[in-house]
Amino acid sequence: MYGNTNVLGITIHGNTNNLSITMYGNTNVLGITIHGNTNNLSITIHGNTNDLSITIHGNTNDLGITIYGNTNVLGITVYGNTNNLSITIHGNTTNVLGITIHGTNVLGLTIYGNTNVLGITIHRKHKQSSYNNTRKHKRARYNNTRKHKRYMIHGNTNVLGITIHGNTNNLSITIHGNTNVLGITMYGNTNVLCITMYGNTNVLGITMYGNTNVLGITIHGNTNVLGITIHGNTNVLGITIHGNTNVLGITIHGNTNVLGITIHGNTNVLGITIHGNTNVLGITIHGNTNVLGITIHGNTNVLGITIHGNTNVLGITIHGNTNVLGITIHGNTNVLGITIHGNTNVL
Fold first, then answer.
1. For residue 15, what are the contacts with CB-CB under 8 A and spacing of at least 6?
2. Is residue 186 part of a domain?
3. In which domain, by residue range, is 149 found?
4. Other CB atoms within 10 A of residue 140 CB
5. What is the distance between the alpha carbons of residues 239 and 17, in angstroms, rounded to a whole number?
6. To which H or E segment does residue 243 belong?
7. Is 236 helix (H, G, I), strand (E, B) or coil?
8. Phi-psi label, residue 257: left if phi above 0, alpha if psi -120 to 50, beta otherwise
9. Would you state the pLDDT for residue 299?
10. What is the pLDDT of residue 49?
11. 49 to each of 78, 148, 182, how far by Cα in Å?
12. Is-contact 103 40, C-beta < 8 A?
């Protein structure tokens, strides 16, 4: 979709096991290139448990989405549900949720009263980190066991700004042997896939098998990409990565409110099982704002990441984006839990 606003904006309260990700055998671990972004990857999480937990095994191009110039496509609002959008993916291999983002305020982090915050373990390919800001250039060096990994950031404001309060195991991700997991491309969309639901059970449950290109998203020209705020957490953003390749590489350009979702107390909303499909709901989005903005309160194991043998895992390139992947979640259980097996071009 192109020229859209408020694409898949998500608000979730009091959930458990939301979008937890497990991956194996990837390469390019956490290679991030950021240029002139604003509030990228800003997430606010409060009192949830296992939010955004995703398990993916041997898939190819999972969650590949292309969207152009749509307005209010599949706008959904959900309240009082359980197991919203739970996704499980097995046997996929390439381009699973790969994201490239360009903008300002990339990954700004603010953390309060946490334990083991941003504990990262990386194996195979470790480089240096250099951050170029508007006032002066600053270089940060990280000594690792084998090699130094390089993180280049140019002309950004509030890079990796995260605020975390009183959570446990936030953003824990386990990745094994995947390639280009969660690749997303988005351009100039408005209210794409915005859902409103109230007290439903098993709404829009889909089962699919053997698919490729599942929800791959590319986003350009956004602001506030994946800004995270977390309070009172334990093991926040503790990442273990081993032998992966291009895991969670995201490209986002000029989008507005992409994937903004509001969900309240629902059960099994949009639970999707897909087997052996091809090109199912593939979405590409360009020129969006507020893509996947996430706010989470009181969670446990929120986006905990464990990665083994990866290369360029979570390699993010962000240029001029606004509020990409901003999500607000409150007191839900199993929100956006997706299970996918051997699919091609799913969603």
1. 48, 49, 51, 84, 263, 296, 299, 329, 330, 331, 332, 333, 334, 335
2. yes
3. 8-346
4. 10
5. 17
6. strand 239-247
7. coil
8. left
9. 40
10. 38
11. 19, 34, 22
12. yes
Question: Helices in the chain by DSSP H: which ranges?
Answer: none
Please tell me the least confidently modeled range out of 39-43, 168-172, 295-299: 39-43
**Side chain identity at residue 203, one-letter code:** V
State the Cα–Cα distance between residues 313 and 25, nearest whole angstrom: 10
Condensed to tens digits (0 to 9), the pLDDT of residues 297-325 reads 444 434 444 444 444 444 444 444 444 44
Compute the average pLDDT of residues 15-20: 38
Nearest to 293 by CA among 333, 265, 251, 255: 255
Contact 190, 72 (CB under 8 A): yes
Go through the chain and tell me how many residues it has.
347
Q: Look at residue 257 and tell me if it is in a domain.
A: yes
Number of domains the chain contains: 1
pLDDT of 335 reads 41
Residue 283 phi/psi, 5-degree rounding, is -125, 130
Please write the tens of the pLDDT for every residue from 68-112: 443 333 333 334 433 333 334 444 333 333 333 344 333 333 444
Convert 6-33 into a string of H (helix), E (strand) and C (coil): CCEEEEEEEEECCEEEEEECEECCCCCE
User: Which neighbouring-strand residues pair with 13?
Assistant: 330
Residue 166 falls inside a structural domain = yes
3-state secondary structure 297-308: EEEECCEEEEEE
Query: Mean pLDDT, to the nearest integer, of 192-199?
Result: 43
Residue 218 resides in a domain: yes
Average pLDDT over residues 31-37: 39
CA-to-CA distance for 169 and 71, rounded, in angstroms?
A: 36
- Of the chain, the percentage scoring pLDDT greater than 90 comes to 0
Q: Rounded to whole angstroms, how far apart are CA atoms 89 and 210? A: 10
Residue linked to tokens 């998500």: 10
Q: How far apart are the two ends of the chain, measured CA to CA in Å? A: 13
